[in-house]
Design goal:
Among the domains are: 1-88, no CATH class; 91-158, no CATH class. The protein has 20 helices and no strands. It has helices at residues 11-21, 35-40, 51-60, 62-73, 76-79, 83-87, 95-103, 110-123, 126-135, 140-146, 152-158, 166-172, 178-186, 192-198, 204-212, 218-224, 230-238, 244-249, 256-281, 286-292. Helix 11 (152-158) runs parallel beside helix 13 (178-186) and helix 17 (230-238) runs parallel beside helix 19 (256-281).
């Protein structure tokens, strides 16, 4: 049984909910009552619950944790002193809670987001860790508070994040760790001069990552089309910025997978041309035509 003590105007209701939630048999046959709905119904402006009561609920009931934290985030001025309470026992929260906090990093305080990210890194599955590190809003504070705790594999995942500062990407572009360089080469936010430098890297996987980068220019892709590594040539064929004549030039490549990529790319280009022509014939105009492509 969960024991909580509340002093707000709704303390009686809160304690009743705490008592009910201490019992696992809380659903009726029609599943009409849920902890989340009942607790969220208490967000009533006519009789507001004290913010510290909200925080206690959030800690006690993981399933309602994110809903409550999101409400608290609206009270920025009074929210900060509750962070230690809300971050406590973060490791014990369900994976879904970590995921929701990370996915809403634009509205939640960075310390809370970092705490959820650290829990994900420590206990989450590899795919959850990759997605979190790949998508989180990475600021200087996040990097400083997280980098030393990451494994080399997770650091490489973080370096694929488009929101990693350009200075950080530039720094790791010269790393001896090939996985770091691969991630930098793959990152669409990597500065152009760094991508040009990585085109000549001794690692074929790094060159292949440059060829797959959506930021790669037609000139860069033309040079990479003659790379000795088949994966680099395959990525050149698949890149939407590769000139059509370069793609056709790879049609007779010695590698079957490259030839297959060429066939797919040429078919996609033909479809795009057909859509463009159809849109033009209907009088959509140039703006709509570009959008359809």
């Amino acid at each position: 049984m969960i024991t909580l003590s509340f002093s707000s105007p709704k303390s009686a209701a809160l304690n009743q909910i705490a008592k009910r939630m201490g019992n696992k048999a809380i659903y009726d046959k029609k599943n009409l009552w849920t902890p989340e709905r009942t607790i969220m119904s208490l967000f009533d402006k006519s009789a507001p619950i004290d913010l510290e009561d909200y925080a206690r609920i959030a800690r006690a009931f993981p399933r309602a944790y994110f809903l409550l934290v999101k409400e608290l985030a609206k009270e920025r001025d009074t929210y900060k002193h509750l962070l230690p309470l809300l971050m406590a026992d973060m490791d014990d929260k369900p994976t879904e809670v970590w995921r929701k906090i990370i996915n809403n990093d634009d509205v939640l305080p960075q310390p809370l987001v970092i705490a959820a990210l650290k829990s994900t890194v420590k206990f989450g599955k590899s795919l959850d860790r990759y997605k979190a590190l790949r998508n989180i809003n990475v600021g200087t504070e996040t990097l400083a508070g997280l980098w030393d705790e990451l494994s080399p594999t997770d650091r490489a995942s973080l370096l694929t994040n488009p929101r990693v500062p350009a200075a950080v990407l530039t720094k790791f572009s010269t790393s001896r760790n090939s996985a770091y360089k691969f991630s930098v080469a793959h990152n669409p936010s990597t500065p152009m001069e760094v991508l040009e430098q990585l085109m000549g890297d001794e690692s074929s996987s790094t060159r292949a990552a440059v060829a797959a980068n959506p930021k790669a220019t037609a000139e860069m892709l033309t040079l990479l089309a003659s790379d000795e590594a088949w994966m680099t040539r395959l990525n050149v064929a698949s890149n939407k910025h590769t000139p059509i004549n370069i793609i056709r030039g790879l049609a007779n490549d010695t590698n079957e997978q490259v030839r297959t990529a060429v066939s797919i790319a040429l078919e996609q280009r033909r479809r795009n041309e057909a859509i463009t022509l159809k849109a033009t014939e209907k009088g959509f105009g140039i703006d709509q035509t570009v959008r359809l492509q």
